[in-house]
């Protein structure tokens, strides 16, 4: 008798995967194992995944490059949340006959977190909250956003929604990216400005680009040096779009005033990393999409995709 099909659910940090949707279409035909920890070491990851036929991955928490996939001969399906996953080697998966599925999602939670970070950084909320907890009172002076310049780097799915909220706050909204046209900016309720002006005039610069060859390191030492000493940088997109070493130096030197960050070059952010404790950084652990509605969509669509695959391809050859 063939062993039962096995499904691994990776990086369920909050231990909520099995509560977010009805897994019975899958559990009736396969064994499901949930892992709430993260493995960064490839050898350890391969050893963990070797017994599984299906792997369910949450966004890009665990990359699945060719160097991992070719060492998993039993793996036949990857279910990934979101409509794309740049950390999966799709060419390698196709060559190895591994089916990859994706899900729907919601960008509202990332838009909302972007503004949570902007407001927290502008009003010094983390330090003020800590002061109250410690018995102190009013330790700093926040900044008002009305009339300030909001620079939106990228106008894809999220940038225009962030721009509209900035306009509602009474901010002067400008936008730039490599291929952006003035018409793109107008459609989003922003003004297109040249690259140099974009970085030098933004009081709050918020990043909303996909990570790719053109965007990797796009905000580097020169761009940070061009920004106002009073400026705030917000990144809820992908860590490597901003040169992390250059950002840390700019924050330490006072070249910019502060940052609100949800994404990093290495995730989880290593223990002892300076961005964890810098006083002018509001750091959150990549929770832009970690909210009730997107999670329900992710897990519901993922279970449906796995169940459909089990129905058509699940029998062992």
UniProtKB/TrEMBL annotation:
Listed InterPro entries: D-2-hydroxyacid_DH (IPR050857), D-isomer_DH_CS (IPR029753), D-isomer_DH_CS1 (IPR029752), D-isomer_DH_NAD-bd (IPR006140), NAD(P)-bd_dom_sf (IPR036291)
SUPFAM superfamilies for this protein: Formate/glycerate dehydrogenase catalytic domain-like (SSF52283), NAD(P)-binding Rossmann-fold domains (SSF51735)
Pfam family, one: 2-Hacid_dh_C
Superkingdom to which the source organism belongs: Bacteria
Keyword Heme: no
GO molecular function terms listed in the Swiss-Prot or TrEMBL record: NAD binding; oxidoreductase activity, acting on the CH-OH group of donors, NAD or NADP as acceptor
CDD domains: PGDH_like_1
Keyword NAD in annotation: yes
Keywords associated with the record: NAD, Oxidoreductase
Residue ranges occupied by any D-isomer specific 2-hydroxyacid dehydrogenase NAD-binding domain in the UniProt entry: 116-288
Family statement: Belongs to the D-isomer specific 2-hydroxyacid dehydrogenase family.
PANTHER family: D-ISOMER SPECIFIC 2-HYDROXYACID DEHYDROGENASE FAMILY PROTEIN (AFU_ORTHOLOGUE AFUA_6G10090) (PTHR42789:SF1)
The protein, known as: Phosphoglycerate dehydrogenase-like enzyme
């Amino acid at each position: 008798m063939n062993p039962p099909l096995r499904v691994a659910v990776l990086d369920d940090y909050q231990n909520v995967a099995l509560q977010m949707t009805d897994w019975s279409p899958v559990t009736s035909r396969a064994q499901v194992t949930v892992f709430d920890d993260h493995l960064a070491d490839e050898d350890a990851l391969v050893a963990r995944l070797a017994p599984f036929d299906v792997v369910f991955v949450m966004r890009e928490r665990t990359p699945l490059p060719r160097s991992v996939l070719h060492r998993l001969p039993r793996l036949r399906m990857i279910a990934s949340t979101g409509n794309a996953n740049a950390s999966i080697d799709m060419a390698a998966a196709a060559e190895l006959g591994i089916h990859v599925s994706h899900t729907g999602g919601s960008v509202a939670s990332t838009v909302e977190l972007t503004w949570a970070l902007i407001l927290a950084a502008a009003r010094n909320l983390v330090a003020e909250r800590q002061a109250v907890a410690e018995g102190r009172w009013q330790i700093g002076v926040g900044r008002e956003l009305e009339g300030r310049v909001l620079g939106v780097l990228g106008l894809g799915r999220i940038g225009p929604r962030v721009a509209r909220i900035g306009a509602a706050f009474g901010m002067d909204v400008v936008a730039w990216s490599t291929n952006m046209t003035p018409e793109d900016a107008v459609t989003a309720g922003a003004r297109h400005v040249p690259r140099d002006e974009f970085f030098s005039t933004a009081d709050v610069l918020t990043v909303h680009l996909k990570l790719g060859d053109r965007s990797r390191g796009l905000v580097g030492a020169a761009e940070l040096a061009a920004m106002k000493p009073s400026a705030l940088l917000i990144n809820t997109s992908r860590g490597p779009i901003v040169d992390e070493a250059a950002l840390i130096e700019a924050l330490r030197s006072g070249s910019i005033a502060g940052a609100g960050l949800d994404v990093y070059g290495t995730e989880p952010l290593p223990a002892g990393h300076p961005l964890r404790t810098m006083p002018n950084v509001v750091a959150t652990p990549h929770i832009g999409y970690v909210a009730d509605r997107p999670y329900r969509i992710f897990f519901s669509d993922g279970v449906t995709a796995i169940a459909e695959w089990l129905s058509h391809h699940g029998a062992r050859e």
